[in-house]
Amino acid sequence: QVQLVESGGGLVQAGGSLRLSCAASGRLFSRRDMGWFRRAPGKEREFVAGINWSGGSTAYADSVKGRFTISRDNAKNTLYLQMDSLKPEDTAVYLCAARAPSFGTTVVVPTTITRYESWGPGTQVTVSS
């Protein structure tokens, strides 16, 4: 298991930027595919972005492509989400998630909730219009 803690959320105006971080503790962060999900009020949790353990493959929801960038620093056990050109509809709790360690290569990063085994508590992002 791995423990995850998100930070960097806050209140920002539409068009602004935020950078979320997810600090991981526990075993084998560098071998885990990672993802960002979000849960807006009254909506189901949805996939935002994912990255494989090496950082060589990424995936994005259509709603954030071209605006959000996922990255990781395995030396620091940290996952990031750079969010630019934020819109009011991006308002949500953002959660970091980890898959079980892998010793193969993930080419297509999973986008479904059930493929991730560990979750952080989330950080609130609010975008005002």
Unreliable stretches covering 5 or more consecutive residues? none
Mean pLDDT equals 96
User: What spatial form do the alpha-carbon principal axes imply?
Assistant: globular
For the biggest sheet, the summary is: 7 strands, mixed
Oligomer: single chain
Count of separate DSSP helical elements: 0
How many individual β-strands?
11
The H-and-E topology, N to C, reads as: EEEEEEEEEEE
What Rg, in angstroms, do the CA atoms define?
Answer: 14 Å
**Residue fraction in strands:** over 45%
Helix content: under 10%
Derived from helix and strand composition plus strand pairing, the structural class reads: mainly beta
Q: End-to-end distance, in Å?
A: 39 Å
Task: Kindly describe this structure.
It is a single chain. The chain is mostly beta strands. It is 0% helix and 47% strand. It has no helices and eleven strands. Strands 2, 4, 5, 6, 9, 10 and 11 form a seven-stranded mixed beta sheet that branches. A four-stranded antiparallel beta sheet has the order 1-3-8-7, with no helix packed on it. The mean pLDDT is 96.
